[in-house]
Amino acid sequence: MKRAIITGITGQDGSYLTELLLSKGYEVHGIIRRSSTFNTGRIEHLYQDPHDPEQRLVLHYGDLTDSSRLVTLIEKVRPDEVYHLAAQSHVRVSFDEPEYTGNTTGVGTTRLLEAIRMVGIDTRYYQASSSEMFGATPPPQNEDTPFYPRSPYGAAKVYGYWMARNYREAHGMFAVNGILFNHESPRRGETFVTRKIARAAAAIAQGKEQFVYLGNLDAIRDWGYAAEYVEGMWRMLQADQGDDYVLATGTATTVREWVQYCFDHVNLDWEKHVRFDETYLRPTEVDALIGDASKAEKILGWKAQTMPDELARIMVEAELVDRIDSV
Ligand code: NDP
Ligand code: GDR
């Protein structure tokens, strides 16, 4: 039985990846942060009793800022695969907390890579790199596109990307960068724009709210479906060698068009319900991200199936029936 560690198991991607690995027969070890309230909502449906001798999902307390804990966990679990998904992942928040974002999203990566090297196990490592690293470089973006990050988050991810590559080149580690474009789902954090708009469209249609306040409607993003992207992560670690891959749909959608998709789905005129709030603008914006995932298709046989208009429908539908684990 293969054993995997997932950092960020309580996040959107962590929950889908856990489902996938359990379905493939893995023993999955997740690192969770201690918090005064439960933060395991997205994986609650996967919970397994620790007293069950067949238990294949095990949760451990840990934090990316605590190197010694990362070492003891790697030593204890001795995983075949490590999926490093944990991060302060909100771009707008990274402008408010640049140092914390650098410490977790950036240096946290080094702590984990170094823990693996110190323990000396032969493990395959997945780094959650991001299209935000391309920032101001115009689309289409692929594995050879130069980085030009536009936020503390983007800069921290560029550092993490190069650390993963350096451990591959310097120490021979099987380290992979998955350069993922935006991927969404009914489990997306509520403050990311797709979920915020899907929730608002449903709440307004149900008469619970009247308006949603947004920032830049002109930004272009390449929105895919998170459940499909975790399959791509897994395939990257099954390849013959460690490499870097873009995952994207190749489809451009503005925030305004996303708003339209969501409001059309509930038969509402969005212009009557969307208001501007400058709080949601970023000091430096990423204007356009459109990915070219042809390398992943050619080498991994991975291709995005769900396009943004269909994804908007899935997300609004999930809000209307008020359940997050349905899709
Ligand atoms: P989420 O924000 O949903 O999840 C982040 C996870 O990281 C949560 O489990 C969170 O725990 C955990 N975490 C945050 N800080 C720490 C810390 N200091 N120590 C331990 N755990 C921590 O992100 P996604 O699932 O959307 O994304 C997964 C990864 O992929 C992230 O690294 C993100 O930056 C990257 N990425 C995401 C893309 C996307 O479109 N979704 C695109 C490209 C890259 P808690 O639940 O306690 O907050
Ligand atoms: P992003 O996602 O910054 O691309 O990072 P987000 O959904 O936060 O923003 C997308 C675009 O929408 C614009 N926008 C708003 N954004 C938010 N959050 N709230 C608003 O009210 C709003 N109004 C307009 C933004 O300016 C932006 O242009 C996500 C994260 O998951 C990262 O971790 C990941 O690396 C990248 O995707 C790829």
TrEMBL record:
Cofactor(s) this protein cannot do without: NADP(+)
InterPro entries, alphabetized: GDP_Man_deHydtase, NAD(P)-bd_dom, NAD(P)-bd_dom_sf
Residues reported in the UniProt entry to bind NADP(+): 125
Signal peptide: none
Pfam (any one): GDP_Man_Dehyd
Catalytic activity: GDP-alpha-D-mannose = GDP-4-dehydro-alpha-D-rhamnose + H2O
One MF annotation (Gene Ontology) recorded for this entry: GDP-mannose 4,6-dehydratase activity
UniProt xrefs under NCBIfam families: gmd
Function statement: Catalyzes the conversion of GDP-D-mannose to GDP-4-dehydro-6-deoxy-D-mannose.
Name of the protein this chain belongs to: GDP-mannose 4,6-dehydratase
Lineage: Bacteria, Bacillati, Actinomycetota, Actinomycetes, Pseudonocardiales
